[in-house]
Amino acid sequence: MYTLYATPGTGSTLSEIMLALAGVPFAIKSVDIYENPADREMLQRLNPLTQVPVLVLPDGTVMTESAAITLHLADVAPQAGLAPPADHPDRPAFLRRLVFIVAALYPTWAYGDDPGRWVSGDEAKAELRRSTDEHRKVLWRQMEAAAGSPWFLGQTRTALDIYIAVMNRWRPRSEWFTAECPKLSAIAGRLRADPELAEVWQRNEG
């Protein structure tokens, strides 16, 4: 059985959705990475960055980083369609956008959510938050320009659509996506309407 260390509403939601779609047995270990020092200490032993998701494989191997977990589950459960097969024409585009999300988009929250970790002084903190928020919008517009329909890569749903649906609720929030990135907003809406995932959304977003 897989064990997912997760904090509701965070990036661990991505891995929880993928585990559900993969159809593999898994358990969730809820951790409060913000308010519970004991949880943070325990998580740090598994992941020195003290971040979720952390996925413990059935053989005890520890995996971190959502993209790595995505590719692992795509290999374990190819029937779930989390990633195009290696010889599929969509594979290069999938890999490009997956890495773009985790390497370009994700850091805008890492640095902007808690600017006091990186800079000192109220003015510098406010500017870091503002600049990362604005840069994120630029990056999302690039994703919008590349998006297909009904899913990001066209007719086939992949893990890219899961990232879009989860992150749609993070800054700049779903209202901004509706106005500025309608294709991405529609993708998020389609995934959120999947009854198979209703329990996951309820657990993570209430």
UniProtKB/TrEMBL annotation:
Which intervals of the chain form a coiled coil?
A: none
The protein's matches in InterPro entries, at most eight in alphabetical order, are given as: Glutathione-S-Trfase_C_sf, Glutathione_S-Trfase, Glutathione_S-Trfase_N, Thioredoxin-like_sf
Top-rank taxon, per record? Bacteria
Report any Pfam family annotated for this entry.
GST_N_2
- Start and end residues of each GST N-terminal domain: 1-81
Cross-referenced PROSITE patterns: GST_NTER
Among PANTHER family, the record links this protein to: GLUTATHIONE S-TRANSFERASE GSTA, GLUTATHIONE S-TRANSFERASE-RELATED
What's this protein's name?
A: GST N-terminal domain-containing protein
Q: Which organism is it from?
A: Inquilinus limosus MP06
